[in-house]
Amino acid sequence: MELLMTTHIAPRTWQRSTFGTLLRVETRKLLDTRTSRIMTAVLVVVAVALVAGRGVVTGTADLFTLAGTAGAAFGILLPVLGILSITGEWHHRTALTTFTLEPRRARVLVAKCVPVLVAAALACVLAVLVALPVTAVAASVAGVEASWRLEPYELLGWIATMVLVTAQGLALGLLVLNAPAVIVIYLVSPMVWSFVGQLGKGGKAMAQWLDLNSTSDVLMSGDVTGGDLARLAASVTVWIVVPAVVGTLRVLRSDVT
After folding, report:
1. How far apart are CA 82 and CA 43, in angstroms?
2. d(CA 32, CA 37)
3. What's the pTM?
4. Which residue of 119, 127, 169, 244 is most buried, as measured by CB atoms within 10 A?
């Protein structure tokens, strides 16, 4: 009599990753790649160079003015960092592996966005910390009294502006999923809006409502009207909310290869 032996193999169970684990993983991705290291180094170097350069050359001894000098570079570099972060999975063809390990794609996308937005806020804090000694040195060299004025609404408004422009880069990257194309779109859009603003009253009105770089300026103003908030909401909807929603739906429903 032939004995048939069967071996029972217990099925493997899928263990869900916590959101904290996803955040740690995506933060490491943001910091571990060669491109992200270069971008981070450039952010730090440019912030120090711009703040110190303005303080030494012009003798400006105003804390917030010096810190805000770094915003000229942050407004470009932070969105590019967001674009590279959100499109990196598709550029390196690792999205399939990521979504296999964590099938809940929406959680992965959120975990990708959070570290970049936090980095935008920390960049502003870095600029302020750099501006502190530069303000003291500039005041001493120029023989003037240092201004340590740092209004809470100005600082928070500036941080919010940097977070918004970074979110714009994330949203456009999520929509297009192609880093070179999105970077070109982002860098060209200010020039396009500047041109549109010169096309009579209609073009000027359109730019006032849809140019995020222009509408977000009110965040650093202590006197914000309902119209200012309406224009800001319209530009945020067009450049952040809609691209983010459409891009998310695209990633959730499409086949990843």
Report:
1. 13
2. 7
3. 0.85
4. 169
